[in-house]
Design a protein that fits this description.
Length: 274
Amino acid sequence: MAPITSQMPEISVLVPVMNEQGNIRPLIDEIVATYSGRKFEIIYVNDASNDGTKDDLLAAQKQVPQLRVLHHENRSGQSAAVRTALLASHAPLIAVLDGDGQNIPADLPALEAALLAARPAMGMAGGVRVTRKDTAIRRQASAIARWLRRQLLKDDHPDSGCGLKVVDREIFLKLPFFNHMHRFMPALIRREGGCVLAVPVGHRMRERGLSKYGILDRLLVGISDMLGVIWLLRRMPKTGMIVEDEVKAPKPAKTAPKKPAPKAKTKAKTGRMR
């Protein structure tokens, strides 16, 4: 991990959004309150919204100096928006949360602390929603997806679909990118030899806007994605730990200290007293 300089933020908070008018400023204010007194940046990526999301972001940017805003010309999906923000980030630690307000920013420091406690290992601390505030059909669909990931990907994280996570930027950048990759983060992190931690977090109901969650289309796409991830995991060589040899300069040979040359003996001159 690169050393943190005085100009570098300690953590970058990435928020992908699409049509989240009304949810922008309340969530930003919570993030600012969570990291008050620390060096941080907030990077929102607007994935080609067609409501007032862009206007809300521009208004917030004028008042929140830590906020950076990027816009996609074409709608590209949540994973693409997260990647856009990741490539623009500066901090060695990356926090990610959904932009609908259901994730609670105040839970992020606990994820960060868990990840730092695992040093020298690098990887991800992912949230586990203790009490999930979603519809019954959405919870059931997530349970099926978790079961499939556990069986096919050996993904034992109890809540892989939780949007709240803190990840080491160095290992995040190594992950293969594809649409919907955010749903397979634990398996992909382990593929790179990283650790995956589970930390209990809160969850709340969506207060504004509409969910983009489609049960049937997400299930069909999810099966296709899972087959692709299985292929990736099988093709990854098991390199194990990589150690670099250090060539040490040879120590100079020890030489015996030189003995001082013996002093020449001189005869004392004697003279007669007159």
